[in-house]
Amino acid sequence: MSQLTLLKLGGSLITDKNHPFTARLDVLRDLAAQIAAARQVTPGLPLVLGHGSGSFGHTVAKQYGTRQGVYDSAGWQGFTEVWYQASTLNRHVMTALHDAGLPAIALSPVAAITAKNGKVARWDLTSLQAALKAEIIPVVYGDVAFDEALGGTILSTEDIFEHLAMELEPKRILLAGLEEAVWADFPVNKQRVSLITPSSFNEIKSGVGKSHAADVTGGMESKVMQMLALVQQVDGLTAEIFGGEQPENLAKVLAGEQAGTRIQRD
Q1: Model-level pTM?
Q2: In the Cβ-directed half-sphere of 178, how many Cα atoms lie within 13 Å?
Q3: Helix, strand or coil, per DSSP, at residue 250
Q4: What is the torsional sign of CA 55, 59, 62, 67?
């Protein structure tokens, strides 16, 4: 697992976050083709793929407040609706991967993960590790989860990657989104940040910002802070936040080139 990569296709990238329940199918097809090309260059490239929920899960989750907990029948109705929308988007993702000829299998988080206070508490990774051993790409995604303290909650892809990083010790976490990089002056986006370390983050934190549209899991600032915590805890781990719309950017990053903002230890 020393060369393992965790790759997230962000919800802002694969859906239109300003139009509920709208997948960007052309973008999905292009990203799947780039992953397939990378796997041809490096056969058996160990990869766990995750994706956000974008205008599918976030829209409903914001309406019901699912991330904060589920306590009554209306909340549980919302819980099932978030699951339905997240799984609907996942099917679009799986179709694109399948059409690109990629051996991929979806592992629904709600069926495998038990949370506590909004964090992964228990997850049997046997199936995911078996998939990697067979050179299959396991696909996870932002999803609802039953929570021992909150009843129910939502786990973002970053929450899921956080647990996987601690358990599997990957080499890289790659977050492909709509933004080309982390900006120090969001949303003006003229001051691009090429490198973030724990000691440099405070200088730019106030300008990093949240997100353009509904995002119940925190937006850019939350992503950066989670990645900073992880690179300090997992030896040899780096993270990169980069744009997935630029031509061949994903293929370049999978090949080891830097295209966005790298996050690493001091």
Answers
A1: 0.93
A2: 19
A3: helix
A4: negative
